[in-house]
Amino acid sequence: MSKIPPFDLSEQYKIIGDEVNAAVLAVLASGHYIGGAAVETFEQQFAHYIGTSESIACNSGTDALYLALRALDIKPGDEVITTPFTFIATAEVVSAIGATPVFVDIEAHTFNLDLDRVQAAITERTRAILPVHLFGQPVDMTRLMAIAQAHNLAVIEDCAQAVGAEWAGQKVGGIGHIGCFSFYPTKNLGACGDGGAVTTNDPTIAATIRMLRDHGRRAGGYYHEAIGVNSRLDALQAAILQVKLRYLDIWNDQRRAVADRYQQMLQHVPGLVLPQEPAGGKGVWNQYTLRLLNTAPHQTPSNDGNHRDQVRQQLQAEGVSSMVYYPLPLHLQPIYKDQMQAPKSHPIAEQIANEVLSLPMFPEMLPEQQERVAYALKDCLSDRAA
Predict the structure, then answer these.
(1) How far apart are CA 71 and CA 76, in angstroms?
(2) Which InterPro entries does the UniProt record give (predicted)?
(3) What share of the chain is helix, strand, coil (3-state, %, to 5)?
């Protein structure tokens, strides 16, 4: 019996391979591999999709975040509020520019920032809030923007896992001051390599990011007005992303259908807490991440021997792959734990990190594949309960 992978990009390529091949060959024949029409066209199409006036392509989601912070002139000594339950890039870029990430605990039911705690974490040094729309589920942007406006703070949306997600009918990445996207291959809109984009309605911010992504120059040539970086999206990736963008809404709808089937199959299974789409939001299910309630709920987060990890190993033996995003919250990572004189506890993030398991999720996933996943998970849990 074949194994079920956590995601399967080969199935997507079978559907759009001819279009992707033609787009790539057209770029190769053009001789224009950096910048040019392919990149500019994608930027225009992506801005239109998100609903912003500006879109600036760059070479990764990490660079998108970095460029956004630089464009806002956030400096050493400034604080940026963000979540401890995400990939390290979100906080890493804050540290990279010398500012301080201030971690705020999360909500257990959404895995996103607890906005009550965001309010309490604001100080005179806070310059920005960096929410993450984790696993494709949007943060309550209505409330977050109200908090930011009351304190004159910038909002940078980390939309790496949430392209196409909406809050109150508006796409994420077009609600805050800046939106940051990743086109890593496993994202809902994935390139065939690294890629990213920044979205904004502020032309000054957009111009600054375009300058910074190209070695601090505005019009090419050899005149530089800032210390920039090389963060250009290449034309091949832009051409591929143009093809994929046409299918994005279809794929997101398919992901919702996969999530709905999981909900139906697993809703009555003891010991599971299923993910929920927040009221007022429309998720895009980059991951289907549930919680496996531990037999020892106060166990310290660990990579070795907890209930979740044992279930995951048993699923693997049954031919079902799964992923753990993320096994150790950022405030407990060595790089941050060692820097903090008195590390704060974020108990919800610490508990969730010990319980989460992401099941296979990709648009082309067949109902019979999901049935295998669901039956295998039920068997694992019943074996452990026996």
Answers:
(1) 14
(2) DegT/StrS_aminotransferase, PyrdxlP-dep_Trfase, PyrdxlP-dep_Trfase_major, PyrdxlP-dep_Trfase_small
(3) 40, 15, 45
Which has the closest alpha carbon to 93: 164, 211, 196? 196
Which one-letter DSSP state was computed for residue 319? Answer: T
d(CA 163, CA 133): 9
Question: What is the dotted CATH code of the domain comprising 248-385?
Answer: 3.90.1150.10
Q: Which two tokens stand for residue 146?
A: 């109200």
The closest of 145, 181, 146, 171 to 283, measured between CA atoms, is 171
Angle at CA 40, nearest 5°, toward 39 and 43?
A: 85
Q: Do 263 and 47 form a contact (C-beta atoms < 8 A)?
A: no
Alpha helices in the chain (DSSP H): 9-30, 37-50, 61-71, 89-96, 115-121, 141-150, 203-213, 235-245, 248-266, 307-317, 334-337, 347-353, 367-385
Yes or no: say if 199 and 178 are a contact pair by the CB < 8 Å rule: yes
Query: In the 8-state DSSP scheme, what is residue 34?
Result: B
- Sign, CA dihedral 293-298-301-304, equals negative
How is the chain split into domains, by residue range? Answer: 9-245, 248-385
Q: Please, which residues bridge with residue 323 across strands?
A: 358
User: Residue 298 has what pLDDT?
Assistant: 42
- How do residues 135-184 score in pLDDT, each as one tens digit? 999 999 999 999 999 999 999 999 999 999 999 999 999 999 999 999 99
The residue-averaged pLDDT of 105-131 equals: 97
The yes/no answer on whether domain 9-245 falls in CATH 3.30.470.20 is no
* Predicted confidence (pLDDT) per residue in 183-204, tens digit: 999 999 999 999 999 999 999 9
Are 73 and 202 in contact, with CB atoms under 8 Å apart? no
| Residues with Cβ within 8 Å of residue 56, at least 6 apart in sequence | 43, 67, 197, 198, 199, 200, 206, 209, 210, 213
Distances from the Cα of 371 to the Cα of 243, 260, 374, angstroms: 31, 13, 5
Best CA proximity match to 195, nearest among 187, 206, 207, 203:
187
- Can you tell me the distance from the alpha carbon of 289 to that of 322, in angstroms, rounded to the nearest whole number? 10
